[in-house]
Amino acid sequence: MNGYAVLKGASYTLAVTPDMVIHNGTTQTTEMIVNPESEYLKELPSHLRSFEDAVNYMPNQVYIGNEKPQKMAEVGFPWYDKLMDGASKDGKYGEIMPEDEFYGLIQICDVFDLVKLEKGFAADVKAKLDAHHMFTDEHVAILDKNSETTQEEIAALVNDEHAEPLYFNNVLVGAVKRAHDVDVNLSAHVMLENLVTKASNVLSLLNLVKKAGVNPADIDYVVDCCEEACGDMNQRGGGNFAKAAAEVAGFVNATGSDVRGFCAGPAHAMLHAAALVKAGTFKNVVVTAGGCTAKLGMNGKDHVKKGLPILEDAIAGFSVLVSADDGVSPQIRTDIVGRHTVGTGSAPQNVISSLVTNPLDEAGLKIVDIDKYSPEMQNPDITKPAGAGDVPEANYKMIAALGVKRGELQRNEIADFVKEHGMTGWAPTQGHIPSGVPYLGLLRDEILSGETKRAMIIGKGSLFLGRMTNLFDGVSFVVQANDGSASEENGGVDESKVKAMIGQAMRAFAEGLMGEEE
Predict the structure, then answer these.
(1) DSSP class of residue 50?
(2) Is residue 512 part of a domain?
(3) Cα-flanking dihedrals φ and ψ of residue 170, to 5°?
(4) Scanning 86, 206, 286, 421, which has the fewest C-beta atoms within 10 Å of its C-beta?
(5) Cα torsion for 117, 115, 13, 254, to the nearest 10°?
(6) Where does the source fall among the domains of life (predicted)?
């Protein structure tokens, strides 16, 4: 027996990309087609944040581990107008990377010579990445291929060869070429989207190595759970982002595959990883995902209309290490799993019951036995001005209301339940990114410190977006303090006990020999 799989580490990263908001976010690119002279497009540039403002934005600091959600609650909504002073781009769990360095990383991740950067820009970026100390000499040397690339050549690629432009401070500094003349799945637009996803994925993997002390050679399997798809005209979503990112990150002993489930993808992927480890198939599995260019500035019109800065200006990523039970790290209870089935339906009560109370009932637990719930941890600064409300709070109220109906809570206890068992949302609205997993890094620390005993991670997704089904989707799982079950399953034998047993056996053997000699 292997005990439960455990949560061994997590990383969270952001790449602040204001120029990509304008040129790659679908809200903006669609507006350029249908209403190119709109007031929104004219006003948009003045609402873009500086890199420093993005770093000093408290929800971003929570995401990379320098602050806690409780601090956001103390400061109070909204947070865009309450910037921190002197916050660091380097976090406990990851980092916030500026746009120019991210372009360099995109080229590092390009193995088909599709990315071109202007020579002066590339030289500056190379120096910055070289000083980063997370990239190898081989990584940064890739930028030397731009030594003769001029801005005129890049402009020609964009104007004549259907390449996607890369801007920095509104200046053309690079381009991503198409990978095929007629295959739309390998167009420059798709290649840029996929390279951005891969690069942000790699950034998180490298930070997992750095921040969690992971040995890349120890990783057996990688599961990617982003919302993009890579392939060609004959297999549009064939993959494999997982192995592509693992290659750049130096996970030389890993294989891997992609798992998709819209916003619920990360929760599905965590269950895959935990099951693989629990079964003994692999010892160390990384669940990882990069971000999405399409969602940059997704709610920009509402933000600009209300005088807010563009808050969806970063490409997010995360990586989580799931390993064999070490007797210390938080355990992933693969026997307490909620699931929205085909027959569950879309009624809110049915959804919450399938994901929360059904698995708790099977485990003999009540709603209040879960210290913290982590559903869609979207940042209210982004969603409330767009009319979507406070998404985490709405989830907590639904859970509490179900608790009242079940007789586990009094109606006047709902507000206290939300405060005690919930958290203020801090994650960027990058689709799959907010879905439960942003809490895993902090949760591990809280459990190890004794602050939290048990938490539930909830992933939910809307499948209608793919026009294949109108079904809703979701899965959940519980993470708990390590109960020592792994050592119990193995007879309670640890290294010291084994040594003692060997010593006793050797003494008995020696005494036996001495007895025979006498």
Answers:
(1) P
(2) no
(3) 65, 20
(4) 86
(5) -140
(6) Bacteria
